[in-house]
Amino acid sequence: MGVGGSVEPKPAPDNGYVFRIAADAKPWTPAAKVRESSSARCAQSRRRAAKIGGWSKARYAVMVAISQAGSEREIQRPSFGEENGWIAKELSIKDACSLNHFDVGRVVGRGAMGEVSLARIKKDGTFVALKVVSKSYVTQHNHERHVQNERRILGGMQHPFVVSLFATFQDEKHLYFVLEYVPGGELFSKIRGNQCLAVEPAKFYLAEIFAAVAHVHDRGYAYRDLKPENVLLDAEGHCRLIDFGFARVPPTDSGLMLTNVGTPAYMSPEQLSRKKTGGYTRVVDWWAFGCVSFELMTGRTPFSCKNHDDSHHAIYLRVMRGKVSFPSFVSRQPRDFVRELLKPDVNKRLVTTAAIKAHAFFATVDFKAVSQRRAVPPTAVGTLPPGDASHFDVYHHRRRDRRDNKDPRAADGSTTRRCSSFRGF
């Protein structure tokens, strides 16, 4: 989280970037779903043939040949001759996944529940991101619902600015998410150390983040943890929204949620005072979007204060007052955009996709082209050597065995509960 420090943010240097659409860019299209394996199709064919009167070896051989030929046409594996072809676009493992299918490399991310590592698929040598979550932590903190929500919600997402989930599996102590590897690092790295972005580069990232959050809402979900650390950049410089641990479907009767989740610096007044307001709706994601907008263009979160207390309580008081102070270099239009998103009264705030898109800040943005992934990124990491993780911070692997033996319920008969809580992984 970008917080206030002793150094006043300085205006970003103008590198000449202007938001634009690439005229020759091909629109993004959803990846074709991998069809059934040839053996599965043949098994189905045998069952159908048995119902209509027999099955000969010759017919079986013909069906196998046809199925194999079709499989080769339908499933195109990434080639290492392609640009960054070492990054898996789909999972080549057709059997039930296990840790034995991967060579686990360096850690590229870490959170309270676990860590994310770069992993090589042994079968074809391509790379994925492997998110490892501690079962003991999940059960101790009653987060079973969160990990199941992440598996279900992210597994059903297909969007150019949302990370792809290939598979999940589990062992005795851990849950595993096999994810698309996004090699460009966190968007937060662009503003680390009181750095900030000029308006035009910020507008590019905000347009893609907006498209991702709008898609999450269109699918009926609330995201609830939007911040620069949860946005990665791919090799071409486009955004990927990650970490759906706090995402959920709002209750159907009222749409109000009461759970205390998220990062305090990005939480709205109705989240922080949910007991008084009776709860909050998914429009809190647009409040967080306003916080991210401010942070990208100033280098700090809107309710942090230079040389002042940045405790959770101090941030809470500033959020409830709703007063946002801008550095002098931020121009009128971005200021107005952020203020419209960060009004304490939700009834006066920008809370609909139509209203946000219609603001003058986005006047030059073609959102249809953005959603087709045709906008030109400000920067790109380009072609990288296989297994490159140079755009991520350096972490060390945790000693998981000590961490996972801390579950006090492991000895009191909670094994059955733990197994049922993680059913489906």
UniProtKB/TrEMBL annotation:
Residues 378-425 are annotated as: Disordered. It comes from the Eukaryota. Keywords: ATP-binding, Kinase, Nucleotide-binding, Serine/threonine-protein kinase, Transferase. Gene3D superfamilies: Phosphorylase Kinase, domain 1 (3.30.200.20), Transferase(Phosphotransferase) domain 1 (1.10.510.10). One of its GO terms (molecular function) is ATP binding. Residues 102-362 form the Protein kinase domain. InterPro entries: Kinase-like_dom_sf (IPR011009), Prot_kinase_dom (IPR000719), Protein_kinase_ATP_BS (IPR017441), Ser/Thr_kinase_AS (IPR008271), STKc_AGC (IPR045270). One of its GO terms (cellular component) is cAMP-dependent protein kinase complex. The keyword DNA damage does not apply. ATP binds at K131. PROSITE patterns: PROTEIN_KINASE_ATP, PROTEIN_KINASE_DOM, PROTEIN_KINASE_ST. Belongs to the protein kinase superfamily. This is Protein kinase domain-containing protein. It comes from Chrysophaeum taylorii.
